[in-house]
Structure formats: C-alpha cells, structure tokens
DNA sequence: GGTTGTGAACAAATTCACAGCG
DNA sequence: CGCTGTGAATTTGTTCACAACC
C-alpha cells in the first residue's frame, strides 16, 4: 500500500483549501491514478465513504494517518555523516512529516562529537545505547555501498526494525525487519534507458 | 526494466573481482531476486548466455550498458538550489555513474551567479539557453512541492525529455517525456506503516 | 552435467462495470 | 441521480519446469 501516503498528501492539500468532501474521481486525479484504484485502496481501510457524496476529507485523513502509524513522530537515525547523510539530516521534509532526525552516526572518530545542522554526531559503537535512549525505530543508511551490509546488521542488532537504504548495494535484513531502498543513480539510469528508446523510436 | 541497473552493478562487482562468467543463479543471488527472473530479463536483451556455462560478465555488461544508454555521459541539470539541490549537486554518485551535474538552476536571483560544489548556479530564465549550451537531457526537480509543476513545464519547454522529481507533489509532463519520482518522506511513511503492523501482530 | 531460454501455470495488480445505497 | 464498494474480467508480472544446447 505504497499509495496511501500519496492520497494522504492530496487530502492534506484539500484540507488546506477548506474542501470538506472529495470523490474518488477527484482524488484519483490529484494522486495521478485511476478512480477504481482509489476506491479499492480506500475500501481496504474500511467503508469510510458515503455513496452519492464521496469521502469526508478530515475523517479520511484521520483514519489514514492512524493506519499509516502517523499519529505520532518516529525519530530516525542516519548512519553515515558524509555528503548524503549530512544533506538528509538537513532536509526539512523529514521533520515536517513526522520523522525528526534524532542522531547522526558515523564510523569515523573524527566526525564524532559535534553537531551537524543541529543533529548530534555519534560513533557507530554507541548505536545500541542511542537506540535505547532516543527510541528510534527507523534507520537510514547513507554510507558507501561497501559498508551498507555491515551497517544494516548493526542497526538490526540495535533493535531497529525498519531500514531505508540509500547505498547502491543489495542488502539483506533479518526476518521481521522492513527494508526499502532509494538508489538515486539508478533512477537516472532508468531515465537514460527511456531516452535511448525515445531516440530509437524517432529514428 | 528497472532491474537492469541492479544487474549491471552486480556485473561490475564481478568484473572487479576478475570473475569472467556468471550463472543466472549467482547473479540472482547478488541482485536479490529469483533466477528465473534474471533469465527472463536478460533474454529480453537478446541471447547473450551460453548453456551449461552462464553469461560472459564483460560482454553482458557491454550489451546492458548499450541497452541502458550508458555508453556515454548524460549531463543533468538540477532545478532548486536549496538544501536538497545542493546536496544532490555534491553527491558523488551521479558523476561516478555517468551523470555529471552540468548546472544548478534557481528562481531566486540571490543564489544565481556563483558556484556550489563547483557547479555554476544560473537563473531559471536561462534554462533554454543552458539546455542548448550544455545539452542536458535529464532534469532533476529539487524545489518545494508548490513549484514542481511549473518547473516541470519549464524543463519540458526547454527540451528536457527526462525528469526526476524529488518534490513531494504529483506532476504531469507532456507525452513523450519520461518521469520518475523519489519521495524521501514517503518512503519513511511506508516504513512506519509496516512498523505499526509489526507491533499489531506482536500484541 | 550444467545452464540457458521460454512456454505454460500461477499470482498479483489493475481496471471494468454495475448493484446497492444515500 | 451520483458515487461508493466490490465481484468479475483483464492485464501484468512472477515462478515453475523442462526441452534445447554447450
């Protein structure tokens, strides 16, 4: 159900515009999908719509936030205080959407001790203590590919059950741990594939 | 075929390890997928394997790079010189994998003129001229959500046919333009959903 | 014997289309 | 009459299993 957050974002826009109810058709348009898909997806949450009318924006938002577990903040830890890690620590979108960056962690002693964009930098070895202390449930891997698996193991060992991996490497996690990945360069490679095929079609 | 880049990365690792041939089984393990899927995917490129032996790492890499359009660099332009845009400009992974950042572009005159991490910062209005000059085919949107559609339109107007959108907004592009999106906070929201459901299962 | 390439079986996701309800 | 909720139909994607080949 990776589309729920997109619906939620659309609902939030509607709410800002003081719109009280919305049809599946309108919501589909905003989310860039098919109306039937919206109804199927929402029906999975329960029967929150009213036939002939649509969905109550506020009520649906609430139910959806509850289902997504967004009724409270989820502090996150970022492992890797390099370029990407620092950038992510400074990215306002995380805090704004309920994922404050509680700590940065790095394997290099040189980077440890200070603050980056207001976020304290700790050593990898302190991960278990930090997890207990700050109670983060989500870890973000922003290290080079070579360190990714090791970091994933350390996060899992520290009790972190959700991992978002930015390193360009395939990693495995224990049963019961959720894993998602974002490979920035991979996205560009997919685009270059389409470019190449556009060009071929034109020739 | 969003899996091809993953295979390519695995092939590159094998090449570094001086391994000349690889079976679909081994490649599947490295890429974290099923062996039959690897064979299906690769057969789409052509019959490059040898029965009883496997695939020639170097030859397959070459064919795959060609198919993906990675035989030459694709310069990219990043629109939005805020936190995220600057971070992406500084992210080594792009250049390293053949996507040099040719320019940063912003709507604010204050940011225009200098260099950020060695990348020149230009004004939005210069986009068409820059496109003609630097020949970028890929644009990265790293603006706030409110500006995303406008930027997409400007990129399309400047002849950019591939867009990677980091703004948390649904945007539309003209027919013939490729669009991919990365929503960082959305990934965390999906993870929080799984967290919530893990917890529920344990209770 | 080992491994590919692929048709056939299966599973998942999407879309259609309409009954049922407000 | 309009719009939801959902079974049925369709499409898409995955996996199996094995003949063909080295």
What is the fold's blueprint, element by element?
The structure is a homodimer of 203-residue chains.
Chain A: H1 4-16, E1 21-22, H2 24-31, H3 35-43, E2 49-50, E3 54-56, H4 57-68, E4 76-79, H5 83-90, H6 92-96, E5 101-106, E6 115-116, E7 119-123, H7 127-134, E8 138-141, H8 145-157, E9 162-165, E10 178-181, H9 184-202
Parallel strand pairs in A: 4-5, 4-8, 5-7, 8-9, 9-10
Antiparallel strand pairs in A: 1-3, 2-3, 6-7
Chain B binds a DNA duplex (22 and 22 nucleotides) through residues 23-25, 34-37, 39-40, 42-43, 47, 49-55.
Structure characterization notes:
The structure is a homodimer of 203-residue chains. With 203 residues, the first copy, chain A, is α/β, with parallel strands linked by helices. Chain A has nine helices and ten strands. Chain A has helices at 4-16, 24-31, 35-43, 57-68, 83-90, 92-96, 127-134, 145-157, 184-202; strands at 21-22, 49-50, 54-56, 76-79, 101-106, 115-116, 119-123, 138-141, 162-165, 178-181. In chain A, a hairpin with a 3-residue loop joins strand 2 (49-50) and strand 3 (54-56). The longest helix of chain A is centred in the C-terminal third of the chain and has 19 residues, at 184-202. The relative contact order of chain A is 0.09. The mean pLDDT of chain A is 95. Chain B binds a DNA duplex (22 and 22 nucleotides) through helix 3 and strand 2.
């Amino acid at each position: 159900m990776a589309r729920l957050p997109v619906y939620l974002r659309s609902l939030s826009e509607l709410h800002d515009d003081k719109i009280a109810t919305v049809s599946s058709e309108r919501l589909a348009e905003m989310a860039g999908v098919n109306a039937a898909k919206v109804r199927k997806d929402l029906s999975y949450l329960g029967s929150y719509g009213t036939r002939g009318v649509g969905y109550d924006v506020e009520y649906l938002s609430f139910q959806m936030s509850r289902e997504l577990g967004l009724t409270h903040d989820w502090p996150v830890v970022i492992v890797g205080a390099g370029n990407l890690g620092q950038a992510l620590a400074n990215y306002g979108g995380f805090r704004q959407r309920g994922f404050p960056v509680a700590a940065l962690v790095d394997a290099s002693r040189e980077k440890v001790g200070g603050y980056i964009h207001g976020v304290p930098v700790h050593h990898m070895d302190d991960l278990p203590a930090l997890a207990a202390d700050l109670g983060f449930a989500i870890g973000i891997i922003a290290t080079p590919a070579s360190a990714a698996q090791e970091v994933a193991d350390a996060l899992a060992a520290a009790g972190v059950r959700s991992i978002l991996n930015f390193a360009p490497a395939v990693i495995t996690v224990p049963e019961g741990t959720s894993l998602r990945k974002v490979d920035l360069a991979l996205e560009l490679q997919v685009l270059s594939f389409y470019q190449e095929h556009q060009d071929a079609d034109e020739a």
